[in-house]
Design a protein that fits this description.
Layout: E1 13-16, E2 23-24, E3 33-37, E4 41-45, E5 51-53, E6 58-62, E7 71-75, E8 79-81, E9 87-91, E10 96-100, E11 103-105, E12 108-114, E13 120-130, E14 133-139, E15 144-153, E16 156-162, E17 168-172
Parallel strand pairs: 1-4, 2-5, 3-6, 4-7, 5-8, 6-9, 7-10, 8-11, 9-12, 10-13, 11-13, 12-14, 13-15, 14-16, 15-17
């Protein structure tokens, strides 16, 4: 039986999946992954894993002091949030980077907030689907860059707010 994966909170946290890994908490409840760090937080799935959460697929909080600690999420399989976001990420350190294949969520496919000093970058090679918004991105650092293959949202495909010091760039290839 798959249950929510919540590693202990530490200064820095790196989670890497192994070949053959997959998680589905649709029967047991909760997020597939709920990750919190007070420093760098890195999640890497290069194995094409299916990650499904009864709530969200991946929830990640990098709660560092502004200017210290980055948040990076890389997935190569499908990430699904049945009752919430596919991927929900919040960073208060430096930069926030999300690179994924396909993502689906009940409300948002990807919801990302960077309150850190660096940039926010979202790259999705596959389709991102959200019942309300496909990609919701808010950046308070420098540049906000969103590049997606295809995006679907019940109300909006992409919503990007950049109140940082850099540029806002959105590219949709689908």
């Amino acid at each position: 039986t798959d249950i929510t994966q919540t590693p202990p909170i530490g200064t820095s946290l790196t989670v890497t999946t192994s070949p053959g890994f997959g998680i589905d908490t649709s029967l047991t409840g909760g997020d597939a992954f709920n990750l919190t760090s007070s420093g760098n937080l890195t999640f890497i799935d290069g194995n094409g894993s299916n990650i499904t959460g009864a709530e969200s697929g991946i929830v990640a909080y990098a709660m560092g002091v502004i200017g210290s600690g980055a948040l990076s999420i890389t997935t190569s399989g499908m990430v699904t949030g049945i009752d919430d976001a596919g991927i929900a990420a919040f960073n208060s350190g430096t930069s926030l980077n999300i690179s994924t294949a396909g993502v689906s969520g009940r409300y948002e496919g990807i919801s990302a907030i960077n309150a850190g000093s660096g940039g926010l970058t979202i790259t999705a090679a596959g389709t991102v689907t959200g019942g309300s918004v496909g990609v919701l991105a808010q950046n308070m650092g420098t540049d906000l860059t969103i590049t997606v293959g295809s995006v679907l949202g019940g109300t909006h495909g992409i919503v990007g707010f950049n109140i940082g010091s850099g540029a806002l760039q959105i590219t949709s290839n689908g």
